[in-house]
Amino acid sequence: MTQFWRPIHELHQMLVDREISAVELTDAILAQVDAVDEKTRAYLLVTRDLAHRQARAADERLRAKRDLRPLTGIPMAIKDVLCIDGVAATAGSRILEGFVPPYSATVVERLAADGAVFLGKTNCDEFAMGSSNENSGYWPVHNPWQLDRVPGGSSGGSAAAVAAGEAVAALGSDTGGSIRQPAALTGIVGVKPTYGRVSRYGLIAFASSLDQVGPMTLDVRDAATVLQAIAGHDPRDSTSSPRPVPDYFEHLAEGVKGLRLGVPKEYFVDGMEPEVEAAIRAAIRLYERQGAHIEEVSLPNSRYALPAYYIIAPAEASSNLARYDGIRYGRQAGRGRNLIEEYQATRQDGFGNEVKRRIMLGTYALSSGYYDAYYLKAQKVRTLVVEDFARAFKKVDVLISATSPTVAFPLGAKTQDPLAMYLNDVLTLPGNLGNVCGISIPCGLANGLPIGLQVIAPGFREDLMLRVAYAFEAATEFHRRRAPLVSVGA
Question: Helix, strand, or coil here: 146?
């Protein structure tokens, strides 16, 4: 396995040079899944037959040297909130047991058109609601760096799969940090694109004004490769931006000399672990040595982003999840004496505690007499957060901070304290409210656990975000460190 434990760009060249075949590569990754997934629990479903069909088709393209793309023959994992035609999709919830979508998400179609190989559907917090992957309706995911630690959430399965060698890359979704935070906690790269840059068609919705699909990879070049493949306008998604997608590699290696990097003073929060702060300050010094100008900036309304988010996101969730009634698809309780009782029994059985909590929060915030006091006020706070970012980006080109204030915490440590769990996303969710783009890259270790550096850029400036992230990565070796579990399947 370890001979194939390489980033996409290296494996692509090996495939083109016929040093390996797509089938051989796929079998090697599946062997790693067989060896370690009972420990990580990263997958809900492994699609072996589909993977082999796609790998054989990729080998035909490679032999004929026809329509070769950077992702041709590359084995990838898909978070189980994204639909694949004919493959079960649960969004990590028992209420969708047995649901098989008759269509694929646009991002899935685009990866398939490029010749990617789909290994399976990864575990996640139920309906992407969580920061530790302990809210999955099936089983928690374990961090490959230390199996008694969480991998982060909600895209914890995708993060663990990449970090444990069970996939070369993966797709996740990010509503308040659900790509970046697990990427940080598992030592990989995760990108939250600007809202509208990547189609949401075929994404099982949590909060429709916040959800975004993005890549989870071993390094920044790989992230740029996957983002290039999935980004762009989609007429099936009314929120998809018509803006042209730039070449993310054109300026990737130009460095940071002369760029203005802002450090938000509010992002050194109470409770940040000293090792995390030390690693971020070391990263700042490295950028300074590379010729960047460092400037402290203020995002004063970021302190209100967390409570605003936990009004807006649950409100949208309560609306989106109203469709799960057990009548048309998914789980059905089958014990109600009438239609209303059947709805209630199905939702009581099918939803987990965190999803129920957020549905109740959202329904309350939207109810008569409370809409203005809660939901409308939260939307006004959202506007203030947007304005904070806009002011900051008049002074600086990008912002840099920690991704998570802590490293991965023990499984079970915060499950009884929802507020403590919600605080894990305090540095990421302002970016979802502010409609900017962000990336997390590895920048150190604390007690053997990864630390993530976040780079935030203005909306639709993923090219600049990737350039700044790549400058750090090119000068360090953190992205080359592998979780101890990787060697198990060698």
Answer: strand
Strand residue runs (E) in 409-448: 437-446
What domains sit in the chain, N to C, each tagged with a CATH number? Answer: 2-247+458-489 (3.90.1300.10)
CA 224 to mean position of chain CA atoms: 14
CB 89 within 8 A of CB 96: yes
Task: Say how far apart CA 145 and CA 129 lie, in whole Å.
Answer: 23
CA atoms within 13 A on the CB side of 229: 27
User: Exposure string (b/e) for 255-292, b if CB count within 10 Å is 16 or more?
Assistant: bbeebebbbbebbbeeebbebbeebbeebbebbeebeb
Residues marked active site are found at: 79, 154, 178
239/198 Cα distance (integer angstroms): 9
Residue-averaged pLDDT of the chain? 96
Q: Which residues pair with 78 in a beta bridge?
A: 121, 171
Instruction: Judge if pTM exceeds 0.85.
Output: yes
> DSSP secondary structure string, 87-106?
B---TT-GGGTT---SS--H
**Residues 409-460: tens digit of each pLDDT:** 999 999 888 888 888 899 999 999 999 999 999 999 999 999 999 999 999 9
Average pLDDT over residues 81-94: 98
